[in-house]
Prior knowledge:
The chain is α/β, with parallel strands linked by helices. It has helices spanning 18-23, 45-55, 103-113, 132-153; strands at residues 2-3, 9-10, 13-14, 37-40, 59-64, 67-73, 91-92, 95-97, 117-122, 125-131. The strands form 3 sheets. The chain has a 4-stranded mixed beta sheet with strand order 1-8-9-10. The chain has a 4-stranded mixed beta sheet with strand order 4-5-6-7. The protein has a two-stranded antiparallel ribbon with strand order 2-3. The longest helix is centred in the last third of the chain and has 22 residues, at 132-153. The chain is globular, with a radius of gyration of 19 Å.
Amino acid sequence: MRIFTSELETALGRHSSPSAKAAAALPVVQLMDSPMVRVPSHINIRGARQIAALKRTRHLLVTEGMHIIGLLWTDDWSGAPDGDPVWKWMRSSSAGVAPDTDAQVALRMMDRGRTSFLVVAAGALVLGIITEGRLRHAIATAAHGSNQSRLNSLPDLRSAG
């Protein structure tokens, strides 16, 4: 899995100033779905359904060896035959982000990569996933809250009469 959040990122970490980190208003680590359960790509849908029910999760990371190759949503396999391997029904993506990536940046990455999710990882440690729906909702909510705060700080002209 390739983690790419900026051109300045290296395997040893980011080369950014403290002010750049302070500008990240909504890091994806606060929005991600976790815990994540991994299943091998060859497991059948019946097994995946059992694992998802047992672990009480709606998402399964699909792996080949040590590599994440996709994600399986419970909604995606509703009509899938029990004997089909999960790789036939998964959503493919190898894109990922660091936990401190801003939600706006992550959403632009999804749009550019035409994917509906990103893996959130710190180095080789997978922390969870972030979905497009959750990002859009969080950004809209944050924008609404910001606008509401500005409105609340304006003087009430009705009482000034």
